[in-house]
Amino acid sequence: MTSRFESVFLYVVARAMVPLIQVFAFYVITHGHYSPGGGFQGGVMLAASIILLRVSMGDESYDRFPREAGIVIAGFGALAFALLGFMSMLFGGNFLEYALAVPGMSADELRYWGIFFAEVFIGFLVWGALVAIYDALETGGVE
Amino acid sequence: MMDLLLDNRALVAILVSALAAVAVALTGERRRNLRESWTVLAALAKFGIVFSMVPGVLAGERYEVNLLQISPGLELALKVDPAGILFALSASFLWILTSFYAFGYMRGGGEHKQTRFFAWLAVCLSATIGICFSANLLTFVLFYEILSVATYPLVIHAGSEKAYRIGRQYLVYAITAGIALVAGTVLIQNAAGTLDFVAGGFLEAEMGTGLLWAVFVCFFIGFGVKAGVMPIHSWLPNAMIAPTPVSALLHAVAVVKAGVFGFVRLVGYTFGPDLMGAIGAAAVLAVFAGGTILLASFIALTKDDLKARLAYSTVGHLSYIVLGVALLAPQAMLGAAFHMVTHAAMKITLFFCAGAIYIHTGKKKVSQLDGIGHQMPLTLTAFGVGAVGLAGVPLVGGFISKWYLAAGAIDAGALIFLGVLLVSGILNAAYLLPIVTRAFFRRSPDHVKLDEASALMTVPIALTMVLSIMLGVFPDAIFRFFSLSEAIVASVTGVTFGAMP
Amino acid sequence: MSQIPALIPTSLLLASLVALLVGLKSHRAAHLIALAGAVFAFVCSILGLQAVIQGDGEAIRYAMGAWVPPIGIEFVLDSLAAYMVTLITFIGVMVLIYAPRSLALETPGRQGMVYPSMTLVLAGLVGMCLTGDVFNLYVFLEIAALAAYALLAIGDRGAPVATLRYLLFGAVGGGFYLLGVAYLYFAAGTVNMADLSMRLPELMESRAVIVAAVLMVVGLGVKMALFPFHLWLPDVYTNAPSVSAGLIAPIMTKVSAYAIIRLFLDVFPPGFFTESLPIATTIGWVSAAGILFGSVLAVAQHDYRRMLAYSSVGQLGYIGLGIGLANPLGMIGGLLHILNHALMKGLLFMIGGAVRLRFGTTKIPEYVGVGRAMPWTMVAFTVGVLAMVGIPPTAGFFSKWYLLLGAADAGAWIWFAVIIASSLLSAIYFFRVVEMIYRDPETDSAVADHEPREAGEAPASMFWPITIMATAVMAVGIFNVLIVSALLERVVAPLGG
Amino acid sequence: MTADFLLSRYPYILIAVLFGIGLYGMTVKRNLMKKVIGMTIFQTSIYLFFIQGATKQGATIPVRVPEMGTSPELYINPLPQVIVLTAIVVGVAITGVALSLILVLHRRYGTLDEVELLRRMRESA
Amino acid sequence: MKLFAIILIGILAGFVVWGTNDLPERGDPTSPASTGVSTYYIENAYTDSKTPNMVTAVLADYRGFDTFGEAVVVVAAGLSCLLILLRRRRREDGTEGGLFSQADAEKAARMAAGEGLYGDGT
Amino acid sequence: MIYQLDFWLMVILVLFAILALEVRDLLAAVGVLTGFSFLMALLFAKLGAPDVALTEAALGAGLTGVFLLLALVFVGRESED
C-alpha cells in the first residue's frame, strides 16, 4: 500500500503543502508570546503535516518520518522540558523557576526565554506524541 | 540476661513453644527424633517456667510484662494472676504428657504430616498460655484469634473431604466467635475507655443496661462457641475428627477451656459478679449452661462412637464450669475453677484411653469394646478412674469440684441447678460406666491376650490417672491447684475459705 | 531538603521519560532506570516523612517555579501526603522489583513500554497526593489514569473491553471533577487548596459550592470505585496482567479516596461535608452497601483475580466508611486501611502472578498443592489472608479495630454490623483458597485426581518483594500505633475530639 | 423571575443540556464509537463552561495591548483559558487511547456493541 | 433502563443549572474569578516575563507545572497507544519489522521458565 | 443584545451534538462532530479566548476527527443506534 488514495493530485498538493504547514507551525510555536498560539497549537500543526504526509504518501512517508520517530521526539521533548525544570534546581531555585536558570541575566529576560523554550519543547512533544498516536491507530490493532 | 528472662517469665513461657514450633518445622520429617526432642524440651521448659511462678502468685506477686503499645492507650500486656496460672499450669503440665502420648500415637498410627502436626500443636500451646496471661481484653482477643486459626490445621489433619468440611465449619464458628469478641471489646473500649482486667470487674452499671447486654451477647457468642455452650456447640463434636492427641489436649484442655476461661474472665474480671447479677445476665448464662449440661449428657448416651461420646461429655462438663461461674456464689466459683483442672485431668485420661484403643486395636465404637479390658487392663483401668471421676465419685478429683458446685448452687438459692448437677451426675455415670463394665465383664468375640499399647502411650495414661486421683485425695499437693482456685475466688469476690475439706 | 516535595514526582516523571526513550532499545535498561527512579523517590519520601514527623506535622510547602501560591502551583508535603507518598513509592519499588519475570510471561515483547508506564502511574499518583492545587490534581489524575489504561489493557483477551469501560467511567469521573473545579473557581476565584479553605467558609451557603462539592466527590467516587460506580473494577482487575493489577489495585483507587479525604479535611470548611451537606454520611451508606455487595460476590468467584477484585470493592468500602463516620477514630481507621489494604492487596496480586508464572493458572480450584510446591510464598499468602480477614496482630485487624471504635463512638450500629458481617464473609472466601492450596494431591484423598505440583518457589526477583510485603503487613499491624500517633492523629485533628 | 433567570443564565442551561447530551451518549448509547463521540461532547461542554464563566463585560482578549495598559478590568481572565487549554489536550489524549482500545477489541471480538461485547467477553473467559 | 438513565441525567443537568444560581452574573467584572488571582496575571505578566500574551505567560510560567504535567499526559497517551496497539508489524516483504519485536511468545516461555532477574540467566 | 450570536451558536451546538449522537452512519456522526468542534472553536473565539479557540480548532476539530476517521477505516461505519 503506497497510499490510501491513489491520487497524483493529492500527492503533489500534499507534498507542496507540508513544508508550508511546518513553517507556519514553527511560526505559531515561536510567536506564542505575542499572539494566540504556542506549543500546543503549533505542535498539532506539525503533527497534522506529518499525518498529511502519511495519508498522501503511504509507506514512503516512513522513510521521511520513521515510525519510531514519533515517540522518540515526544520523549525527548518532554525530557527537555523536564531538564529545563531541573536546571534552575541546580542553581538553588525551585522546579521550573526560569528566573534562576542562568546566573547573570535579568529575571524577566530569563523568563521570556524560559517560556520560549518551554513552548518549543511542548511543540515538539505534542508533534511527536500525536504522530505516535496516529501511527499506532493506523496499524489497526494488528496482533 | 538471666534477670531479664526471669522478669519476663510470662512472655518467655509463651515464646518457648512458639520457638519450638519453628524448630520443629525447620527440623522436618527426616530427623524425627531431634524434632520430637524440641517438643519435649519446650514442654518441660514451659511447665518449669509456669510452675516457678506458682509460689509467687500465691504470695500475691503479679508478674507483669508490658510488650508494646498496640493502639493508642492500649498495651499488649501480660499479667500472671491466680486464674491465669491455674489454667496455664494445667495446660502446660498436660502438654508434657500429651507430647509423649502423641509420639506414640502418631508413630503407632503412621500418620502423615507429623511435622506440621507438632508445629501447630506447639503454636496452639503458645496461644493458650498467651490467653492465660493476658492482662487486658485486647491481648486476650489477639491470642484467642491466634488459637482459633492455629487449631484449623489440626482439625483438617486427616485430609479427607469430611475433614475439610468440618474444618470449614470450625472456621466459620471460630471466626464468628472471634469477630463477636472483637465487637464486644470495641464496645467496652468505647464505653469504659479501658480494657484491663480487674479482679471484681471494671464495667459500671452507669454504662447503660442496653450496652452491657450487647457486650454480654457478643462475649457469650465469642466464648460460648469455644466453650461449646449449646446451641453453638456443634463444631465441637465434629472436630473430634482430629487425631486423638489433638482431641485430648485441645478439645479437653486448651481450646475449649480457653472459652471457659473467657467466661471466667468475663464474669470475674470484666463485668464483676455484682454487675452480672444486677443486669440479669448471670441468670441467662446459668440457664444456658444448665440446659447444655442436661442435653449434652442425654446426647452422649445415644452416641456409639467413643470419641463422640466423650465429646458430648466434654460439652456437658464445660458447662459445669460456666454454670459455676454464672451462679456467682463464691463456693460455686471455687468449684468451677477447680473443675477446670479436674475435668482436664480426667477427660484427657479418657481421650488418651480412647486413642490408645483406636491405635492399638482399630476400634472406635463403644459396642466393639466387649472384653477389651482383658486385653488392655491398664488402659481400661485408667478409663474407669476417669469415668467415675466425671460421675463425681469421691476420691477422684471430680468429686471435690462437684461438691463445691453443688454447695454453691445451694448458696445461691438456685436449687434447680442443684437438681441439674445431680441428674447429670447420674447421666455421666450412665454413659461412661457401661463402657468399663462392658470392657471387663463381657466376653470378647475374638481371642484376647494381654497386649497393652506402647509405653509412650501407656505411661502418660497412667500419669494422668494418677493425677486425677491425686486431685481427689490431696487437692492441694504439689501443683497447689486448690490454693490457686481459692485465690481466684478471693480476688474476685473477696471471700476466703478457711481450711481445706 | 526543601526540594523534596518537588523531587518525588519529578524524579519519577524524569525516570519514566528516560525509561521510555531507553525502553525502545532495551527493556532491561528501562527496567533499571524505572527502578532507580522509584527507589530515589522512595528515599525522598522517607526523608520527607522524617522531616514532617520531626517538624511536628508542620507541612513543607513548595512553590513550583517559585511563584507564591495562589499565583503558582503549590506542593504540600504534610503528614497525610507524606504518609500516602511513602506508601505509593514503596509499593512502586516492590512491584518494579517484582515485574520483569511476570511481564516476560504475560506481556512478551512490550516490557520496554510497560516500565515507563508504571513509573508514570506512580508519578501521577504521587503528584495527586502532593499537590496543593485542585486543578493540578486533575492533571495528575489523568496522567495516572492514562498510563493505567495502557497497563491494564495489555492483559488477557478481555482486557481491552474492560479497560475501555474503565476509561469511559474514568472520563466521566474526571469530567465531573473538572466541572466541580470550575464551579469552585467561579465561586471563590482561586484553585489553590489553602486559598480555597480560607475563602470557602463565607461561601458555605452558596449553591455553587454545594454543586462543586457534590460533583467533585462524585467524580472522585467514580475513580475510587465507590459502590454504585464500581462496575468497571472487577472486569479490569480480572483481565489485567499481574504486574498491572499489583501496581494499580493497591494504590490507584486509594489515592482517589485520599483526594476525597483531602477535600473533606483541608479544602472545604469544617462541617461542610457533615452538617451543611450529608456527603460524608452518603459516602458511608454507599460504602456499607459496597462492603456487603463486594464481599457477597467475592464468595461466588472461582477466578483468583476476580475474587480479589470483588474483595477490593468491599475493602474500599472500609475506607469510605472511615470518611462516612467523620470522627477521628473512624477516619484513622479509614486512613490506616488505605495503607493496610494497599499492602495486602498488592501482596495477594503479586502472589497470584507468581502462581501464574509457575503453574499457569488463576483458577482457585486449580490451586491444589501449590502450598507444597511454593511453601514460603504460600506462607506469605496466608499472612495476607489473615490480614484481609482481620486476625490480630496483622495489619488488617487494626483498621477494622479503629473503624469499629469509630462506629461505636458515632453510634452507627448498622455500619458496625456491616463491618462485622463482612469480616466473616471475607473469612469464608479467603480461607477457601487457603484450604485449596494446602491440599496435597499425593496424600489427600479428596483431591487425588489433581496432578501433583512440582516444587517451584517463585523466582528470587518475585519472592523477595512478596516476602517484604508480607513482613510489612505484619509490621504495620504490630507497630500501627507509631503510624497512628506520629501521623494520623495529626491528620484527623480538624475533626475534633 | 423565570424570564430574568433564562435571560441571564441561558448559557448555563445550554451548557447543562450539552453536558447531559454527552453523558447520555456515554451511558445510553451502546455503540462504542458513539460513546467516544459522547465523551467528546461531554468534555467540550465543560470547557465551554470554563470559558463562558471567564467572560468579562467590556474586556478584551488577554493579550496585552501596550496602549491600554494592564488594568485588570480591561482583559479577560486568562486562568480559565489556561485550564481549558490543558484540559483540551488531556481530552484528546483520552480520546486517542479510547480509540486504540476500540481498535484492539474490534479486532478481537468483531463488534462494537457494548452489551454484545461484554457477553462475548464473559463467554470466552 | 434507557428512560431511567435519561431521567437521571436530566436531574443531574438540573442540579448543575441550579448551582449556577449563586454564581456571579455573566461577564460580571467584580466576580471572585475576575478579582482573584487573575488580576495578578493581568497586571504583571508583561513585567514578569516580557510576554504580552497572558495566556502563554500563565501557561508556561506561572502554572508551568500544570503544563509540564499536561505534556506528560500527551506523552503518556502516545505511549499508551503504542503499548496497546503496536506489537509487531508485518512489512510487505513478509519480514518482521517495525517497533518492539525483540521477544516473541517462545522466548517469553523460555524466560518464564528460566533463571535470573529477566529469566535468561542475567 | 450583544449575546445574541452566542445564543444561536449554542443552540446550533446543541443540535449538532444531538445529531452527532443520533445519526446511524458513524462517518456522518464524525463529520457532524467535527462541525460541532469547529463551531465550538468559533464560540470560544467569540467569548474572548483565541488561544483556546485555536487549540480546539486544531485538536478538537482537526486531530480528533482524523483519529476517529482512522478508527472508522478499521471498524466500519455502521452503528445500530
Protein model, in words:
Chain A has one domain (8-139). Chain A is built from five helices and no strands. Chain A has helices at residues 8-30, 39-57, 60-64, 67-90, 107-139. In chain A, helix 1 runs antiparallel to helix 2. Chain A is elongated. The two termini of chain A are 19 Å apart. The relative contact order of chain A is 0.17. By secondary structure, chain B is mainly alpha-helical. Chain B has a two-stranded antiparallel ribbon with strand order 1-2. In chain B, helix 3 (32-58) packs antiparallel against helix 4, helix 5 (114-133) runs antiparallel to helix 6 (137-155) and helix 10 packs antiparallel against helix 14. The mean pLDDT of chain B is 80. With 497 residues, chain C is mostly helical. Chain C has a domain at 278-497. The longest helix of chain C has 32 residues, at 328-359. Chain C starts with a helix and ends in a 6-residue tail after the last helix. The relative contact order of chain C is 0.10. The mean pLDDT of chain C is 88. Chain F has 81 residues and is mainly alpha-helical. Chain F has one domain (4-75). The relative contact order of chain F is 0.16. The model of chain F has no long low-confidence stretch (mean pLDDT 87). At the D-E interface, helix 1 and helix 3 of D face helix 1, helix 2, helix 3, helix 4 and helix 5 of E.
Largest sheet of chain B: 2 strands, antiparallel
State the major sheet of chain A: none
Distance between the termini of chain A: 19 Å
Number of separate strands of chain A = 0
- How many domain units of chain A? 1
Shape of chain A: elongated
Element order of chain A: H for helix, E for strand: HHHHH
- Give me the count of strands of chain B: 2
Order of helices and strands of chain B: HHHEEHHHHHHHHHHHHHHHHH
Q: What is the multimeric organization of the chains shown?
A: heterohexamer
Sheet with the most strands: spatial strand order of chain B: 1-2
| Approximate helicity band of chain B | over 70%
- In angstroms, what is the radius of gyration of chain A? 18 Å
Shape of chain B: globular
User: What's the tally of helices of chain A?
Assistant: 5
**Structural class per helix/strand content of chain B?**
mainly alpha
